[in-house]
Amino acid sequence: MDDMKYFAIEGHANTDFEAIHLCAQKLKEEGYVTDQFESNCINREKEYPTGLPTVVPVAMPHSEASGVVKNAICMLKLDKPVCFRRMDDETEEISAKMVFNLALTDSSHMEILQHLMGLFADTDKMQDLYDTDVVNLPEKLAAYIKQGQESE
């Protein structure tokens, strides 16, 4: 996705919804989403949890395309893990260290999700992302996703 923009922030959240708020706020400041985006993501997270029990636990909140102005991903590196309900079993929780808030138009949705799932399964790359300084994260995340697209 050449038209994809990547953002990375660090922060503290006490709940999954606070974590989503931090990402949505950044995406809105940058002009990639509207006011509606944050509540769309939170409402969707209530219905369809996005916590993934990968080696480095992550969550991938997103919403339908309404509220999205342009394609972007905001990665939040948390100072301490936050509980998200699991995607595959919503009675269980994972402690997410990183949150990838996806702002996607419909056309790119499935493709990006597939590349991210591949990335989340790669322990070395995920640990590398977590250990990378937030200033260099957007570039590194973009490179990893691009690698995933090229290996198809």
TrEMBL record:
Residues 1-148 form the PTS EIIA type-2 domain. It holds the Pfam family PTS_EIIA_2. Gene3D superfamilies: Mannitol-specific EII, Chain A (3.40.930.10). It comes from the Bacteria. InterPro entries: PTrfase/Anion_transptr, PTS_EIIA_type-2_dom, PTS_SugarTrans_NitroReg. Keywords: Sugar transport, Transport. This is PTS sugar transporter subunit IIA. It comes from Absicoccus porci.
